[in-house]
Amino acid sequence: MRRCLGSGYDRFLKHFRPPLSIPMKDFLLNLRQRAWCTAGARYNAARRLRIREWVSTCSLALLSAVSILVAFAQRIYSPTPNTVLDNYLSSFAVGVGILLLVVSLLEWGARYGAKAEALHRSAELVTSFQIKVAMSIAAIDAGHSATLDEVDQLRVEYDEIKDKCGENHDPRDDALFRASHRHDRDLWKGGNVAPGWLGAKWTYVKWVLAETWFFALIWLVVAGGLAYSIWLPKA
What we know:
Strand content: under 5%
Order of helices and strands: HHHHHHH
Distance between the termini: 117 Å
C-alpha cells in the first residue's frame, strides 16, 4: 500500500508544475523572440553600415580619379586658355575637389566601420543570450520550475547587453528582418499583416537605398556635368 502511494506521489512530483511555470515560460518565449528580432535587426544594421562604408570608399576613390582625369582632359581637349570649355573644366575640377573634401570629412566623422563593428558584436551577444533563454525554456519543458528571480535576471541581462552597445539599429533594419521572416507566424501574430513577396523585395530596396541614395545623387550630378562639357565649344 505504501509502495503504491509512494509511486503515485513520485509521479505527481515528476509532472507537477508550480503555478508560475507556465506564465514564466510564456514570458521567456516572448523574451527569446525579442532577442531574436533584436539580433537580426542589429546584424542588418551592421551590414547596412558596411555597405555605406564600401560605397563611400569606392565613390571617394573614383571622385579623386575624376578630378585628375578632368585636369588631364582639359590639357588635351582645351589647350587654348580662357575658352568656354577651358573655363568650364577648370570650374568643374575645382567643384569636384571641394565636393571630395567635404564628403571625405563627413564620411570620416560618421565612423560607419566602427559602428558596424559595434552592432555586429552586440548582435553576437544577443544571439548567445537567445540560446541561453532557449535552454531555460527547455529546462521548464523537462520539468524544472523557473522562479521569478531567475527570469528577472534574464530580463536584466538582456537590457544590459543592449545597453553595452552605444549604437542602435534603425527601424528599417527591423523591418527588413521581419520581411525576411514573413512566413513566421509567431512573428506576425497580433493582427500584424506580413508583407508579400513584392513587399519584402521593396523593403530590401528601400533598405539599400537608405545608404546609397546620397552617392547616387552625387554621381548623377558629376555625370551630368561631364556630359554637359561635351556640348561646349572647344575654341
